[in-house]
Design goal:
Length: 264
């Protein structure tokens, strides 16, 4: 099982220099990844928020081994070509260390409704289902022709090519008892379950095996408290422990746990 530091680039951690310091400490202390929240608004009054994609680019140039990624980027509020170019640029900067987490997004603090983005979860689910295959093709350098209810891609190819081969791995957020999001994730490279318990985890595995025929070459990233191993019922199947800090936290508190290294 690999271990990721999962923090929000909010408040004091919106300072790029502090986040780079944290990433370098994580790499030196044996952690495997630094994953960031991806939000544009949070709380009222708003707290400082750094752009996660700019931050991941900075971390990529300041580290050599650590994987980076957003957990998760809401595809329904993004332009496909912009997201594809950001992802491929960070992947190239890092030498192939990007893991791209995708999801529906949430309207916490009005980050959808205040900016005119779709709020209805059914509509956002349809946008995700339509958009992901297009994004995957763009990331793979495929020439895309598409006109659909939510996206138009009229003969577009993008580059550079991913250092990871076909494209960066795609993980998907999914509530652990929600069949459709889990099936969506199973068509790609990994799942980041939300609101997990033992019964939900068993159902998650059942759906993935139904879709894929097994768990080979598929990541299950289980959220856990900082510095703590995830529940024992996940140990035979989880490939990642994602150590999640609160959205507002003192950098020194995060650094103390990070420097101690991931748990055994």
């Amino acid at each position: 099982m690999r271990h990721a530091v999962f923090v929000a680039p909010f408040g004091a951690l919106a300072d790029p220099h502090r986040l780079i310091e944290l990433a370098q400490a994580a790499e030196a202390s044996g952690w495997d990844a630094l994953f960031l929240w991806d939000h544009v608004l949070r709380r009222d009054p708003a707290v400082p928020i750094a752009d996660p994609w700019v931050m991941m680019g900075a971390v990529a140039t300041a580290t050599e081994r650590l994987r980076v990624g957003p957990m998760v980027t809401p595809l329904p509020r993004r332009r496909l070509v912009k997201l594809a170019r950001e992802a491929l640029t960070v992947d190239a900067l890092s030498g192939g260390r990007l893991t791209l987490g995708l999801g529906l997004g949430v309207d916490t603090s009005g980050e959808l409704s205040k900016l005119g983005d779709p709020v209805d979860p059914v509509e956002r689910g349809a946008m995700l289902d339509e958009g992901v295959p297009l994004l995957a093709d763009l990331l793979a350098g495929i020439h895309v022709e598409h006109r659909g209810p939510h996206f138009t891609v009229d003969g577009v190819s993008v580059g550079p090519r991913s250092p990871q081969g076909e494209r960066p791995p795609l993980w998907f957020a999914a509530r652990a008892d929600a069949g459709r999001p889990i099936r969506r994730a199973a068509r790609y490279d990994g799942v980041f379950p939300i609101d997990m318990n033992e019964r939900h985890h068993a159902r998650l595995l059942e759906v993935i095996v139904e879709e894929r025929g097994g768990l080979e070459d598929f990541d299950i990233a289980v959220r856990t408290d900082p510095g703590v191993m995830p529940p024992a019922y996940t140990h035979d199947s989880a490939t990642w422990a994602v150590h999640a800090w609160p959205e507002l936290v003192e950098p020194a508190d995060v650094l103390k746990t990070v420097v101690a290294g991931p748990p055994d």
